[in-house]
Amino acid sequence: MHDHPFEALAARVRQRPLAVAILLFPEVEVLDFAGPFEVFSVASRVALRGALPTHPAFTVQTVAATPALVAARHGLQVLPAASFADAAPCDVLIVPGGVVTQPLGDDATLAWVAETAGRASLTASVCTGAFILARAGLLGGGPVTTHWEDVADLRAGYPRLEVVEGVPFVERGSIFTSAGISAGIGMSLHLVGRILGAELARATARQMQYDWVETAV
User: Fold this and answer.
1) Computed from CA positions of residues 190, 120, 86, 46, in that sequence, does the dihedral angle turn out positive or negative?
2) Which helix (DSSP H) or strand (DSSP E) does residue 77 occupy?
3) Which of 62, 123, 186, 188 could be cross-linked to 117 through a Cys-Cys bond (beta carbons 3.0 to 4.6 Å apart)?
4) Rounded to whole angstroms, how far apart are CA atoms 6 and 180?
5) Which CATH number among 3.40.50.880, 1.20.1640.10, 3.20.20.140, 3.40.50.12780 corresponds to the domain 4-208?
6) Rounded to an integer, what distance in angstroms lies between the CA atom of residue 131 and that of residue 153?
7) What residues pair up with 142 in beta bridges, in sequence order?
8) Mind listing the pLDDT tens digit for each residue in 14-72?
């Protein structure tokens, strides 16, 4: 286990809000991005009640290739807060999944993910977002996870990876990969707990009325 990214973030959040960037792209799974967006936003609101009374813990920004509306899965239209060209630097990068055909074939998206992850303290994928991290050259070899339905494809496409089944997420230093869709909520709560403490993470889950089982890594 590598604690250094969390130690640095825990110190940094005492001085200023931590910036969370969440990638959007056509056919992105709604809960893949909305779940982490809710967790970090609610955690920031809960922290203002006592843990960090002077400033928000997190600022959360959705980022897409252009500032135009993004058509997520099931027809939801989402307006990103920033484009690749004007996105603020982030401490935490969240790469959701969904139908990832477009981002996997888009050099601009892959370059932005690679460059942003290189500067961020933590990078985390949800569901098939693991394919984007792999294509962007961020995973190399070693353990990862993804949606159960996509395990075989990830193994076939990236044989150097050890694709783990039946776990909510996998931690590799500063990179996390989670299982499918709602698993991104639990992973995000875990990240909140590692940065701000388990009590704050539990209070966030309680505020969301989310039945969360803490996972030790």
Assistant:
1) positive
2) strand 77-78
3) 123
4) 24
5) 3.40.50.880
6) 9
7) 161
8) 999 999 999 999 999 999 999 999 999 999 999 999 888 899 999 999 999 999 999 99
Strand partners, 144: 163
Task: Please write the tens of the pLDDT for every residue from 189-206.
Answer: 999 999 999 999 999 999
Q: Quick one: DSSP state of residue 172? A: E
**C-beta of residue 5 within 8 angstroms of C-beta of residue 162:** no
d(CA 59, CA 169) in angstroms, rounded, equals 23
Specify whether the CB–CB gap between 19 and 92 falls below 8 A.
Answer: yes
Is-above-0.90 flag for pTM? yes
Q: Which residues contact 14 (CB under 8 A, 6 or more apart)?
A: 52
Residue of 27, 188, 8 lying closest to 94 (CA atoms): 188
